[in-house]
Q: What sequence folds into this?
């Protein structure tokens, strides 16, 4: 099975970016010194060993 | 005299394979009326991919606790990464798979649901996740739609037999014990013919043979099929193999199988039956003489009776019909078909083909046909379409063909299309005339591309087989192939790519010096090795070829919508693509209809944002994306052939353990979107934001929570969530963000 290589969506922000401002309970869990990170990556769950075509026919 | 012809796991799940129905028809024609078929492969999918069995698998995985052990580690080495990938997948999707598997199978089988692309993709993913769960239960064995591998290599007789007895790693032992063996006992045959087509069937087939022999020592078990053309004689060097099975049939099966049946019925020995390997009464292994190739004109129409047609993961039966055997060209230096099918090319008369189609269409009510042949010969390219039209047969069909500029004229292509030809697959291989000459393909790149354009212009979908790393091929030549394909990508829908492998039966192997091959490497203790690694004095190295292949694959995928996984998760399952294509009527209709890129309205600042209600999330101590990337890159330079579905084990695994950098902890959240079946990984901050989206805030209000540089990142993040269906926005007229 062919595995699509995906681009990084966004570089993570540098550490000197201030945290979010909403002050919600959940968001306060972020460390004061760290910028929040918003990574998203789709996983296609396929076996990268199998990326060569396999005839079904 | 009762005969059972059995197709063992693991093969694909979309259609029955043709060999056994052909043999059944032949045996019945020759008077062996008590002949039956069993597709243990599709029955194994049905049994494992059931709500009850998957629930059991889920429980077993939870009780084994391996996921927790992996989560507790401070870093993951290569094999732990493989485990992590498998177990994390089961952890996030396991309950969803159990709840939805029956519905998923219904979608894949139900013509009223199959053609809804979103339902299809979700269901295909559910099946994929189900197989992953069974794999995790039997780790490190791996079962997917495309293969089955264990830690035991199928390049070694000893390891095949070990795998056949491995209760822990071989899921099919349980299946045979619960399902197949009781059925066979009830049937009580005197002769069983096991079809071995794929390498992935080898270990399960011997596992079953062992159980059958224990049950009924007098039962004659014979194995035949394409795989044995490669490994049969080598395997027969181990006389003990005939404690498991009684005989191997090489090449074409009709005549030897009939002779075996007669011998068993009449209580005679197998001596003198051509194309057979067996152990005689004195315990000596005998390889009988090779038979001359048989005429296929007198063979009966295949007989599919007894196969569980309702179980295949396909809404329609695409009838396979072999209208030729062998290849009329038969000169390509990389090819080994002459040794696998039997010598010589033979065609069935067009009159017989038309009669076969009519008989099968009436019997099964299917309009779809697949001709599993090597290439449609020139006389059939010219005459078969007219014959189909004259006979008034309303069918749709596809097959492989050879790029013949003289034959595929615009008029011929138009008639092919009119006769219902929806798809042709050609061996294009390379855009270099020099490489094509070395391959002895009998084609040239420019005239080959003319054929491709003509076929495509006639409304027939084109698939191209492309080979990278043929001995002496330079990187520039491969690059030129890629560029030529990209320039002409509007004329074909799929590129089926592979790296060249050196097959010991090929002309290249026999005349190695002519292809600048310097060294050929044997795998130690792999007595059944078919493909060999090698070095050349010119052209790309094997590693360069592998990297070029990966690069070409990525580039082509991004240009070919059919290739894109958003459309057909299992694009290799060509029958599913063919069905979509036939249903849409044309490639254009398909790309503008079911395969059209989904329009997602851009995020608007005044829209209220809500997390999709169908999300399942689990916390993970490692980031699956990092794990996947590490696994993928670790094998970038592995040049061993994958064709035989072997897992990486032994020396290679140890080397990978040493050479692959460990992955460190990085907390992440795994998300399953139940609407699409898609799994994603996001950061904990991203998950918190996602959970907080309850529709009470607009996009601009969400962005206002962050300072400027972060809000830009958040906006980008939200766009991806929207695109992948993880969030929804209320309809709103406003300014696009």
A:
């Amino acid at each position: 099975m062919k595995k699509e290589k995906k681009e990084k969506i966004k570089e993570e922000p540098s550490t000197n970016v201030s945290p979010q401002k909403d002050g919600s309970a959940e968001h306060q869990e972020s460390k004061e010194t760290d910028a929040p990170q918003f990574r998203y990556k789709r996983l296609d769950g396929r076996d990268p060993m199998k990326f060569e075509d396999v005839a079904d026919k | 005299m009762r005969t059972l012809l059995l197709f063992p796991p693991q093969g694909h799940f979309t259609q029955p394979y043709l060999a056994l129905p052909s043999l059944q028809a032949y045996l019945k024609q020759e008077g062996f009326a008590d002949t039956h078929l069993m597709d243990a492969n599709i029955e194994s999918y049905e049994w494992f991919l059931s709500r009850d069995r998957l629930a059991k698998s889920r429980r077993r995985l939870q009780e084994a606790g391996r996921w927790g052990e992996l989560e507790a580690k401070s870093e993951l080495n290569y094999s732990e990464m493989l485990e992590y990938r498998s177990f994390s997948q089961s952890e996030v999707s396991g309950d969803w798979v159990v709840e939805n598997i029956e519905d998923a199978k219904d979608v894949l089988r139900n013509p009223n649901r199959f053609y809804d692309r979103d339902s299809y993709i979700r269901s295909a993913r559910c099946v994929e996740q189900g197989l992953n769960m069974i794999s995790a239960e039997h780790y490190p064995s791996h079962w997917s739609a495309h293969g089955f591998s264990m830690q035991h290599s199928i390049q070694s007789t000893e390891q095949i037999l070990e795998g056949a007895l491995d209760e822990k790693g071989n899921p099919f032992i349980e299946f045979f014990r619960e399902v197949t063996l009781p059925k066979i006992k009830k049937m009580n045959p005197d002769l069983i013919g096991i079809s071995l087509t794929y390498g992935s069937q080898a270990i399960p087939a011997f596992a079953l043979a062992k159980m059958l022999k224990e049950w009924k020592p007098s039962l004659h078990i014979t194995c035949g099929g394409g795989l044995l053309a490669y490994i049969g004689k080598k395997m027969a060097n181990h006389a003990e193999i005939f404690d498991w099975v009684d005989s191997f049939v090489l090449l074409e099966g009709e005549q030897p199988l009939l002779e075996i049946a007669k011998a068993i019925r009449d209580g005679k020995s197998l001596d003198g039956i051509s194309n057979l390997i067996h152990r005689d009464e004195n315990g000596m292994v005998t390889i009988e003489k090779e038979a001359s190739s048989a005429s296929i004109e007198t063979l009966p129409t295949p007989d599919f009776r007894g196969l569980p047609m309702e179980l295949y993961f396909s809404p329609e039966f695409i009838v396979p019909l072999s209208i030729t055997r062998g290849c009329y060209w038969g000169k390509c230096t990389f090819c080994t078909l002459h040794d696998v099918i039997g010598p010589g090319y033979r065609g069935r008369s067009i009159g017989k083909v038309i009669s076969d189609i009519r008989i099968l269409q009436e019997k099964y009510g299917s309009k779809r046909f697949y001709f599993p042949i090597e290439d449609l010969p020139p006389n059939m390219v010219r005459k078969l379409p007219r014959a189909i039209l004259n006979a008034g047969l309303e069918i749709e069909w596809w097959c492989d063909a050879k790029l013949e500029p003289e034959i595929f004229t615009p008029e011929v292509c138009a008639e092919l299309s009119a006769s219902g030809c929806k798809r042709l697959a050609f061996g294009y291989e390379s855009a270099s005339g020099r490489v094509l000459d070395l391959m002895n393909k009998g084609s040239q790149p420019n005239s080959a591309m003319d054929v491709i354009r003509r076929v495509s212009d006639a409304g027939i979908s084109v698939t191209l087989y492309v080979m990278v790393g043929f001995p002496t091929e330079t990187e520039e030549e491969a690059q030129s192939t890629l560029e030529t394909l990209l320039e002409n990508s509007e004329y074909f829908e799929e590129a089926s790519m592979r790296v060249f492998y050196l097959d010991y039966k090929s002309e290249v192997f026999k005349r190695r010096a002519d292809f600048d091959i310097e060294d050929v490497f044997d795998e130690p203790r792999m007595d059944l090795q078919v493909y060999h690694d090698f070095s050349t004095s010119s052209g790309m190295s094997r590693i360069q070829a592998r990297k070029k292949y990966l690069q070409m694959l990525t580039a082509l995928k991004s240009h070919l919508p059919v290739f894109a996984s958003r459309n057909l998760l299992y694009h290799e399952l060509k029958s599913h693509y063919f069905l979509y294509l036939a249903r849409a009527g044309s490639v254009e209709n398909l790309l503008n209809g079911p395969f059209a890129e989904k329009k997602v309205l851009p995020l608007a600042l005044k829209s209220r944002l809500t997390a999709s209600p169908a999300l399942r999330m689990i916390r993970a101590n490692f980031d699956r994306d990092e794990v996947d990337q590490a696994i993928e890159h670790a094998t970038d330079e592995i040049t061993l052939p994958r064709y035989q579905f072997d897992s990486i084990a032994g020396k290679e695994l140890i080397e990978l353990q040493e050479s692959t950098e460990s992955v460190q902890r990085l907390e992440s959240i795994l998300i399953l979107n139940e609407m699409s079946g898609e799994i994603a990984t996001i950061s904990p901050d991203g998950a918190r934001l996602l959970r907080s989206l309850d529709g009470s805030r607009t996009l601009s209000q969400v962005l206002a929570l962050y300072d400027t540089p972060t809000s830009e990142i958040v906006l980008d993040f939200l766009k991806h969530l929207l695109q992948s269906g993880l969030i929804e926005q209320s309809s709103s007229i406003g300014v696009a963000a």
User: Anything to note?
Assistant: The mean pLDDT of chain B is 92. The two ends of chain B are 76 Å apart (CA to CA). The first strand of chain B starts at residue 3 and ends at 7. Residues 78-109 of chain B form the longest helix (32 residues).
